[in-house]
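REQUEST
  id: r-88c1
  op: predict_structure
  target: (+)-abscisic acid 8'-hydroxylase
  payload:
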Amino acid sequence: MSPSAYTSSITAILSSSLLLPSVLMIACLLFLYLAYRLALRAFSSSASAAAATAPARKLPLPPGSMGWPYIGETFQLYSNSNPNIFFALKQKRYGSIFKTHILGCPCVMVSSPEAARLVLVTRAHLFKPTFPASKECMLGPQAIFFQQGEYHARLRRLVLRAFMPDGIRGFVPNIESVALCALRSWDGRMVNTFQEMKTYALNVALLSIFGKDEISYMEELKQCYYTLEKGYNSMPINLPGTLFHKAMKARKQLGQIVAKIISSRREKKVGDAGGLLRSFMEAKEALTEEQISDNIIGVIFAARDTTASVLTWIVKFLGENPAVLQAVTEEQEEIMNSKVVDEEEKSLSWADTKRMPMTSRVIQETMRVASILSFTFREAVQDVELEGYLIPKGWKVMPLFRNIHHSPDNFPNPEKFDPSRFEVSPKPNTFMPFGNGSHSCPGNELAKLEMLVLLHHLTTKYRWSVSGLQSGIQFGPFALPLNGLPMTFSRKI
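RESPONSE
  id: r-88c1
  status: 200
  body:
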């Protein structure tokens, strides 16, 4: 699944801001107020310059408000524990396209399926992906997220070659082994569901990248990745002792580990190991070691938290909806019983995963209700007209996936968890859990496969219960059940 790096940045910065003593916060706001008069003229000049470069037909900016200079409306965005309230209120007041200013950036937010498609698909060449420079340093500037044009198309072909059905169908038994190992480790104890799902997703990601043949490097690689992950949302201050500095050091070590694996494969002439690394190393479209390293680390990042978040929400929703859980369990038990030979259960196959329509609808509905990625960021590469408004060059554009997924025009009674709504395909461009267009997540088939495999064994072999009162949502940066959903899992007798 594709990450929203700006979502991470917003959360990290606001978390730091909210720790300031109230007196200091008031002083900061007073300073900003005094600075307002000084900045107003510069801000107006900027708007005039943007208007001067507008298309021949003079266009207005979208409706909305820009807030304070520099900080814009960032505080309003996170004044509630749920930032989606900000987007919903703005849409209700201004309509499906509006302007705002967050994290020092003027932004235009779009919440209609048609406008989102224009930004992500039809006129995607006018809107480039955009990330903070610190994120590019951590993941690697050659990673697919940051690219456009021919190099991006080339990377996407290579990733799809590894992660499309033909590339992953042979991984089912190996993913099943990872799932069974994970479930056994949860048996009889209370666990943080999200953290356990992250471990599962990471193990599947490493399997899909390297295959089964690089065991000797995996623990070292995991430890380096954990250090990198801790620093991802830290302030980008590269001084000894800071999380960011430790993360950048771990990033360098990760690159060295990947280089060792590549060298080892070339020396042994391993050509049938499978996985993403093989796709990257194929002679016809070979990449440099730096390009391979950047993209492998990027894929691990993209595959881990998003998939783990969806699985955590699935466990929660199934626990809250006994009728849905029963329907999924019956579907999975039918598959399980068909595979018992001489009182021994055979491994799942690719064909088995295509016999899970109810479970697949639960995954779809979870991705709609939870909308793990609430939005994505693009940047206008030139002045653009959108629905009769001007989007000046350099402004950020944010398609609001959650608003689209929760619109009653697209999904009646949108707050209700109802997998049956996916018995009929949703209207075009109204369901985009993996994004849309050339930058949509190329690993979505793998993500769905690992969810189906885990859910098969979870529902047929285990039961679970929530530990204490667990209502509410937290953002870290993705939407999650409170405290990562502490649960107790136990094997069925």
